[in-house]
Amino acid sequence: MIKKLQNSPSGKFLNFKFMKEENGIFFFEIIFPPETASPLNLVQGGMIDAALDEATSMTAYIAFKEEKLPLTTDHHVLFHRPMPLGKATIQTKIIKYGKTVTTIEGKLFDQNEKLVATMLHTALPTNIPNQSNRL
């Protein structure tokens, strides 16, 4: 389904995978490696934020028919419980699809399918820069 854009370097680091889209909900899998650990040996909050940002951004990219990328104007993360290292799943959906502003919701679940964190991501649909200028 995703043709033009490969995972970002952070997506590769998290072994980020788009799984499917079903009824407007997008499903992703990631793996939090040991390098994402906090001093408590749980996933550090900023890494959770990065994973949700990656998934919501990819959702917008798919929704824009792979012609635009989201330029983030704002995102908020609510943390509901600690996240152990290892595999996690993310579900996203477009809340508002607009030509000037788009809002995407993301939810991260642990290995037991318990809600860990929720993100609300607002972005501007932006033309993709020349491929030779990208990472």
If you had to describe this structure to a student in words, what would you say it looks like?
- The chain has 135 residues and is an alpha+beta fold.
- The protein has one domain: Hotdog Thioesterase (Thiol Ester Dehydrase, Chain A), CATH 3.10.129.10.
- It is 18% helix and 43% strand.
- It has two helices and six strands; from the N terminus they run H-E-E-H-E-E-E-E.
- A six-stranded antiparallel beta sheet has the order 1-2-4-5-6-3, with helices on one face.
- It starts with 8 loop residues before the first helix and ends in an 8-residue tail after the last strand.
Structure described in brief:
With 135 residues, the protein is of the alpha+beta class.
Strand order of the largest sheet: 1-2-4-5-6-3
In this structure, how is the largest beta sheet organized? 6 strands, antiparallel
Q: What's the CATH superfamily, by name?
A: Hotdog Thioesterase
Q: Any idea how many domains?
A: 1
Mean residue pLDDT: 88
CA-based shape: globular
Rg estimate, integer Å: 14 Å
Q: List how many beta strands DSSP finds.
A: 6
Annotated CATH topology: Thiol Ester Dehydrase, Chain A
Structural classification: alpha+beta
Based on the coordinates given, report the CATH architecture.
Roll
